[in-house]
Every structure is written in C-alpha cells, then in structure tokens.
Amino acid sequence: TMPKEPAVLRQNILDTTAAILACGIDPNKCFLFRQSLVPEHTELAWILGCLTNVPRLLRLPQWKMKRASQNSEGTVGLLTYPVLQAADILLYKSTRVPVGEDQVLHLELAQDIAQHFNKKYGEFFPVPKAILSEL
C-alpha cells in the first residue's frame, strides 16, 4: 500500500521467490506465480469493493493503526486492502485459509463478502474457514 521504487519492488519479488523456494516449496508440485500478473485479482477486488460498505472497512483495527502511523492520512489503497485480500481468497474458491490472529478479522470480512455475494447472485463462492496456528 506504499509506493516503492521499481528496482526495489523487482528485487523484493526475487527475494521473496528465493525465500519461498528456500523453505522447500517445490515448483514441480505447486503453482508459483506473481499475483500482480493475474488481472483477475484486481478485477474481482473491484467487484467485491462495490459490494463492501466503507463503515465496515473503517472499523478494522489494522486500518486504524496504520492510519495513525500515517498522520491520519490513510490512503484508499490501505483502506481497501482487506477487500483485495478477500478477492485473493475467493478467486480460487478457497475453503481453508491459514491465518494468524492479526488476520482473523480480515478473513471474517472475506466470509461476509462471500455470503453477501452468494445471497445476491446465487451460491458461487465457498465461505472460507480459518486455519489458526500457534506459530
């Protein structure tokens, strides 16, 4: 949600890919891709954003904390980031999502968005459940 220099962003992508591979993820057994190259993520985020009310997003604690750290000038990207996260989850029709405690409310938002979408347009998205870990 913060602007980055293009060279730094490219290096971050390479570093993250290297870290994922170093953790033992086998690209022969899973799909490894750059999310930013899949336009359906942002397209679905736009559609879901049109179904999500602003007061709900303003109540999320992460918005309040980050906005405070940005001198009360939080950006639209920061405000709508949880909707993009919901799109990331729902696009693949995920049923289980590993999350930390700090992301439970964002997953609850994804659940609410899925239920709202399904009620309005018919059963399409499974409502994802959290997989919580102590780690």
Descriptors:
single chain, 135 residues, mainly alpha, Rossmann fold, 2 domains, two-stranded parallel ribbon, 6 helices, 2 strands, 6% strand
The CATH topology of the largest domain comes to: Rossmann fold
N-to-C SSE string, H for helix and E for strand: HHHHHEHE
- Major sheet: 2 strands, parallel
By DSSP, the count of extended strands is 2
CATH architecture of the largest domain: 3-Layer(aba) Sandwich
Strand % is: 5-15%
Number of self-contained structural domains: 2
| Radius of gyration from the alpha-carbon trace, in angstroms | 16 Å
* Overall form: globular
By CATH, the superfamily of the largest domain comes out as HUPs
Number of helices: 6
Mean pLDDT: 91
Query: How far is the first residue's CA from the last residue's CA?
Result: 26 Å
Given helix and strand content, the structural type is: mainly alpha
Pfam families: tRNA-synt_1b
GO biological process, one term: mitochondrial tryptophanyl-tRNA aminoacylation
GO molecular function: ATP binding; tryptophan-tRNA ligase activity
GO cellular component, one term: mitochondrial matrix
Please tell me about this protein's structure:
There is one protein chain. With 135 residues, the protein is mainly alpha-helical. It folds into 2 domains: 1-31; 35-130, HUPs (Rossmann fold). It is built from 6 helices and 2 strands; from the N terminus they run αααααβαβ. It has helices spanning 6-22, 39-49, 54-58, 61-69, 76-91, 104-121, and strands at residues 96-99, 129-132. It has a two-stranded parallel sheet with strand order 1-2. α6 (104-121) links the parallel β1 (96-99) and β2. The longest helix is centred in the last third of the chain and has 18 residues, at 104-121. It is globular.
